[in-house]
Sequence to fold (111 residues):
Amino acid sequence: MNNSKGYIFLEMLVAFSMCCFIAVSIVPVVQSVTLDRHNTEMRTSAYHVLYEKLAAYSVGELSATNGMFEVEGVTYSLSWRADSEFPGMVEGCVSYETGAKRIETLCDSTK
Fold:
C-alpha cells in the first residue's frame, strides 16, 4: 500500500467525487417516488371516501348536502349535483389538496 508517486490522494478524490455525484443524483428520485406514493395513498383514500358516501346516499342513509370532513389528517370537500348526462342520477365529487399543493377532484354517480 505504499505508493510513493502520489496517486492515492488523486484516486481518493475521484472516488469521493463519484460517490457525491451518485448521492446527489439519487436524492431527487427518492423524493419524487416518496411524493408519488403519498399522492397515490391520498387518491386511494379519496376514492374510498367517495365510494362510502355514494353507497350511503344510494341506500338513503345520507342526504345530498355539500360539506367538508377530515379523514386521517386530510381534509376532503364533498359536493353533490344532478348528473346532466344521465337523468335521475346524482354525481358526488370529492376534492382534496395533493402533496404538490394541487387540488384534485374525483367524481362518480349514483341513483
Observations:
- The CA atoms of residues 22 and 100 lie 26 Å apart.
- The longest strand covers residues 74-82.
- The radius of gyration is 26 Å.
- The chain has one domain: 7-110.
